[in-house]
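Reminder to self: tokens first, then the designed residues, so the page reads top to bottom the way the pipeline ran.
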């Protein structure tokens, strides 16, 4: 077995670095203290010591409910809504003599609405349950006894179990890596399910356990682990392992996290450290921040207003009722003799009028509760779910190349999409493709690369210059352009001076060789060799890194093999002009991170020289060069600035030769820092790297192009036309960001640029003196002064504000976001059409988003594609994730996921506009129809001396909101369109209706409510006046309460449904069916209900057949009253359309006249 393992080892693409070797010199100060008290006995899960610790099982439950808790918890969730709780109270009171209707008729509609919501919750939770069952029943090999491993389900794993995980399997729990296929216990792990990153991570077990590489070797394996308690920190792990009487330090390098996948390794052995809900991935599985739309929050306020109206009407009614009841019996004379006040109960007892008034108040609260739309919440949920389906299935937002449609991950924020005031966007991977191409470089002060970037083309077009005769890099473009465009992924470079081995003829050939050798060595990429063709491809941690390795290969320095401690290259030997193989021993890797902004490797070449190879951002690299580094530093700086102007991402390359003693000291200190478990672990590593990454010799600079995504300029231009302010938050240099801004139409010709920067001579002078307090004070004063001057400039500008763009760098942004200055900065920024924040950190992105959201009170939308955008997405009102190259973490934190930035145009201008209009109109219409219905009850109450007797039959009351008026409103919320998708895109200014909240401002809402009160008044008074004091049918009978009530009810059903027909702008067959079907269903219900026995149908017994239908008065009154009810709204709509048309109405008129070819 050992021979087979070593044979695999020679073929391995997996590698390890000296920096991961364990050391006994470390700090165990925190082990055993609070937070670091976990003890695991490996291979002894059933021992007494393990059992007394009561660690959790590996069963994972992500469901919200269980069988036992579903009913109480889901009921609690439903009755947290104040409207539902109100109907529960009134439904309970319906069982008392106070109720103006039967209890059954009050409870059943509540059951229907609550039941529908609970069924929806149950279905969603059942889907989660099925996912849990699938995960918990996955199988993994676990050590049973005597070196035998057998399959068991994940849910049965216990802390201390030894497991064997095979290639492409997921890790079932958090495991301590003991050994693997390879002799030094390394393995390759994919963590996409954890952090969304697609690049593979390298893990390495302890040397002490690396020899346990077969099942039988674990027969008598014993070890104990002391480590940190369960926590949510994915990238930290502190512990120690006692094995064979020795202590070994543990780090994150030995921890394999649950739900990550084993890759490029046949198998590994591991010990279970954390199970189930103690694992780091489950500890991180917190719910995203709860987001509610502004319309939904405002809807709650309207509900409270309606409660106030109901309370007021009940109070007024009870006061009048108390007064009239007290006067009912005076000197044995009965005014309302039909109530028999001389023999009445407490409800009408003149001797206890105050108590009767109080009871009547409770009756009024129940009766007038029909002001509150009981089906509003569940209807909105249904509508929003269907709207999400429309978004998900929109073919125009499907990205065929990646097979990715749009995906609305939450339905809570649909209408917010139509109200966005500010878009805050990442650049790399969001505006650009995050597919890097090596296009230019500067070596020894000479610029190479003749291809032209998209930004350069945009700059030429902006300046009105042709591209044909430009001189680039000292070479005529026409002569230097390649005959055939390269199709090599990541490589868009051409320069005949150094391609095809011509670099050996260049004056600085030695520097060129070192330059491309550094690109071929300084990385963590893995080569993949195609067995049939022998072609080498690379799997790298980032697109930049892959582009560098490909560029080195294409220019004669092919990286083709990586072993555990070495890298093999095929190089062009300048002396023999032949390709030779060279092997470099990898001693250490100093990894890249956002604070270091650089990466280094230390290698030993075949001649025994130790070389430090370093690449990094110019902001940290130039200061690390030796004073006599080279005579081409200024030329390199100039080229870097030119590359930034061309929208390219640049890195500086430098190296240093180390002597043995210097390296030995560094390696000792670096290993001690890596193996430390003290609080200053990171500081120790930084201190060790600082001592070696200095006095570097400059080689040159690279420039890679991150191309703009298709359609980005047009999309940004359309969003700007829609009045949406656009901010770009990027980590790029200011020059790069500005030129990308021009290329994507964020910055436009004639737009004034206002730049805030600390690159002033005064600040630079202070920085040389290294007086921190003076630098901070001067920086604050400078930023404050620049912001003040910007505000004055905006205030005095004669041109439109949309022609101003604000650009600020990261250092300045840090001061601008401080408490005493952030409001000034926001005021300046909101006066600009475009804002670009350069060199901004992930934290700054989130802070800027929070500032804009809280400072303006308007809807903010953040869009990004990487893990560094998560904070920004969660802070914004709406988070949009781009499912791009940088994994899925941004998508997992987003509210809606799209594949390309250009899809944002359709998402906002079409779906956002429609959803806002539909939800706004739907809510307003719900309140209108319920006020029309409820106020007619109040008017009848007043007409009947507030007797507490409803105008309508009990079941008429109950089913109004369920069957006779709600379904057409739902159809409006799903299907209505004021204009088509094509016209939404053709006239972006339509979007401002939502951004300015035209359809859901208080004036508009109160107008609809007034319409409801007016409609109820017209229906009641016309019905009573036309039916009162005259014969209703040929027999001479007058209309009683049942006839009057049913006639009023019929008029209400007709009026609210026909007004819906007038309001709708886009009729579909479904809307026709639901509108006319609701009216027809009312007559069918009246017919069927009246055919039941009188004990069930009560006042409606054969009412339609025997009383209403045969009477012409019923049909004439219905027609007359319905028309009169619609006249005020129809008149208002006609006057508004003629004299005060909204923007969408103007477009409708243009479409109607056939004048769309002329937008004016």
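Designed residues (1160 positions):
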């Amino acid at each position: 077995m050992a021979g087979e393992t070593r044979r695999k080892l020679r073929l391995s693409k997996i590698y390890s670095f000296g920096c991961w070797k364990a050391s006994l010199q470390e700090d165990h100060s925190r082990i055993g203290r609070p937070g670091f008290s976990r003890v695991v006995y490996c291979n002894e899960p059933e021992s007494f010591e393990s059992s007394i610790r009561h660690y959790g099982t590996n069963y994972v439950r992500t469901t919200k409910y269980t069988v036992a808790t579903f009913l109480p918890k889901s009921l609690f969730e439903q009755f947290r809504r104040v409207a539902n709780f109100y109907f529960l109270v009134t439904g309970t009171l319906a069982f008392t003599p106070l109720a103006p209707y039967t209890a059954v008729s009050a409870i059943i509609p509540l059951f229907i609405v609550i039941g529908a919501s609970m069924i929806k919750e149950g279905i969603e939770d059942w889907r989660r349950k099925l996912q849990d069952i699938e995960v918990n029943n996955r199988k993994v090999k676990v050590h049973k006894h005597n070196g035998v491993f057998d399959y068991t389900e994940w849910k049965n794993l216990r802390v201390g179990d030894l497991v064997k995980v095979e290639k492409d399997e997921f890790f079932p729990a958090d495991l301590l890596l003991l050994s693997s296929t390879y002799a030094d216990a390394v393995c390759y792990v994919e963590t996409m399910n954890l952090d969304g990153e697609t690049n593979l991570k390298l893990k390495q077990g302890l040397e002490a356990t690396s020899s346990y590489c077969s099942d039988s070797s674990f027969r008598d394996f014993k070890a104990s682990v002391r480590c940190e308690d369960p926590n949510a920190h994915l990238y930290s792990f502190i512990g120690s392992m006692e094995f064979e009487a020795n202590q070994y330090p543990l780090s994150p390098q030995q921890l394999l996290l649950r739900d990550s996948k084993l890759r490029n390794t046949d198998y590994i052995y591991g010990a279970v450290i954390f199970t189930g809900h103690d694992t780091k991935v489950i500890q991180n599985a917190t719910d995203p921040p709860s987001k509610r739309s502004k319309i939904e929050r405002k809807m709650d306020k309207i509900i409270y207003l309606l409660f106030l109206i109901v309370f007021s009407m009940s109070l007024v009614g009870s006061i009048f009722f108390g007064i009239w009841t007290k006067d009912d019996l005076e000197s044995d004379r009965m005014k309302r003799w039909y109530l028999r006040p001389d023999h009445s109960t407490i409800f009408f007892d003149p001797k206890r009028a105050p108590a009767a008034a109080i009871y009547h108040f409770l009756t009024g609260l129940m009766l007038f509760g029909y002001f509150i739309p009981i089906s509003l919440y569940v209807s909105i949920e249904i509508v929003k779910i269907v709207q999400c389906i429309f978004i998900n299935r929109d073919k125009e937002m499907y990205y065929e190349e990646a097979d990715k449609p749009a995906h609305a991950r939450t339905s809570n924020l649909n209408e917010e999409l139509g109200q966005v005031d500010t878009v805050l966007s990442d650049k790399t991977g969001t505006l650009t493709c995050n597919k890097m191409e090596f296009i230019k470089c500067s070596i020894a002060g000479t610029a190479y690369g003749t291809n032209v970037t998209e930004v350069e083309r945009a700059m030429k077009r902006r300046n009105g210059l042709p591209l044909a005769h430009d001189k680039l890099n000292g070479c005529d473009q026409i002569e230097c352009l390649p005959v055939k465009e390269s199709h090599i992924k990541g490589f868009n470079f051409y320069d005949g001076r150094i391609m095809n081995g011509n670099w050996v003829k260049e004056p600085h050939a030695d520097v060129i060789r070192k330059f491309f050798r550094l690109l071929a060595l300084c990385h963590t990429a893995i080569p993949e060799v195609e067995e049939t063709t022998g072609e080498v491809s690379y799997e790298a941690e980032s697109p930049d890194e892959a582009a560098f390795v490909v560029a080195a290969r294409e220019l004669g320095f092919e990286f083709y093999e990586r072993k555990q401690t070495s890298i093999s290259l095929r190089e062009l030997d300048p002396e023999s002009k032949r390709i030779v193989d060279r092997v470099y021993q990898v001693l250490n890797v100093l990894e890249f991170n956002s604070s270091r902004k650089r990466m280094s490797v230390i290698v030993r070449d075949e001649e025994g020289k130790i070389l430090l190879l370093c690449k990094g951002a110019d902001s940290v690299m130039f200061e690390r060069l030796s004073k006599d580094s080279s005579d081409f530093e200024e030329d390199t700086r100039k080229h870097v600035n030119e590359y930034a102007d061309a929208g390219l991402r640049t890195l500086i390359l430098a190296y240093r030769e180390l002597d043995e003693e210097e390296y030995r000291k560094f390696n000792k200190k670096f290993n001690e820092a890596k193996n430390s478990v003290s609080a200053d672990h990171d500081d120790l590593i930084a201190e060790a790297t600082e001592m070696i990454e200095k006095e570097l010799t400059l080689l040159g600079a690279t420039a890679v192009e991150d191309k703009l995504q298709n359609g980005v300029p047009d999309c940004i231009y359309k969003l700007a036309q829609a009045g949406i302010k656009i901010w770009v938050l990027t980590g790029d240099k200011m020059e790069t960001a500005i030129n990308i801004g021009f290329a994507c139409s964020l910055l436009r010709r004639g737009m004034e640029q206002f730049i805030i920067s600390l690159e002033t001579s005064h600040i630079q002078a202070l920085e040389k003196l290294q007086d921190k307090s003076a630098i901070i004070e001067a920086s604050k004063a400078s930023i404050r002064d620049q912001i003040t001057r910007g505000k004055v400039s905006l205030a005095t500008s004669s041109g439109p504000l949309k022609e101003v763009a604000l650009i600020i760098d990261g250092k300045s942004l840090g001061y601008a976001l401080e408490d005493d200055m952030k409001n000034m900065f926001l005021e300046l920024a909101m006066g600009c059409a475009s804002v670009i924040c350069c060199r901004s950190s992930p934290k700054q992105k989130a802070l800027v988003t929070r500032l804009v959201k809280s400072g303006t009170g308007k809807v903010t939308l953040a869009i990004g594609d990487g893990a560094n955008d998560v904070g920004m997405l969660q802070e914004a009102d709406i988070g949009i994730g781009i499912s791009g190259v940088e994994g899925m973490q941004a998508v997992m934190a987003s509210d809606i996921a799209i594949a390309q930035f250009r899809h944002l145009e359709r998402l906002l201008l079409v779906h956002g506009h429609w959803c806002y209009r539909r939800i706004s109109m739907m809510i307003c219409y719900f309140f209108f129809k319920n006020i029309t219905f409820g106020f007619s009850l109040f008017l009848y109450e007043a007409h009947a001396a507030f007797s507490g007797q409803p105008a309508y039959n009990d079941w008429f009351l109950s089913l109004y909101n369920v069957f006779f008026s709600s379904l057409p409103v739902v159809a409006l919320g799903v299907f209505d369109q004021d204009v088509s998708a094509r016209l939404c895109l053709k006239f972006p200014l339509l979007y401002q209706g939502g951004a300015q909240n035209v359809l859901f401002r208080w004036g508009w809402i109160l107008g609809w409510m007034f319409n409801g009160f007016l409609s109820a008044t017209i229906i009641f008074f016309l019905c009573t006046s036309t039916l009162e004091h005259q014969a209703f049918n040929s027999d001479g009978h007058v209309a009683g309460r049942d006839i009057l009530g049913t006639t009023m009810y019929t008029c209400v059903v007709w009026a609210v449904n026909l007004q819906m027909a007038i309001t709708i702008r886009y009729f579909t067959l479904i809307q026709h069916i639901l509108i006319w079907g609701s009216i027809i269903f009312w007559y069918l219900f009246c017919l069927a209900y009246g055919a039941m026995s009188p004990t069930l149908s009560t006042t409606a017994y054969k009412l339609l057949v025997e009383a209403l239908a045969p009477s012409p008065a019923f049909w004439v009154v219905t027609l007359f009253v319905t028309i009169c009810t619609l006249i005020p709204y129809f008149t208002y709509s006609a006057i508004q359309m003629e004299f005060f048309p909204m923007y969408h109405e103007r477009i409708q008129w243009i479409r109607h006249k056939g004048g769309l070819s002329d937008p004016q």
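Residues 379 and 579 are 72 Å apart (CA to CA).
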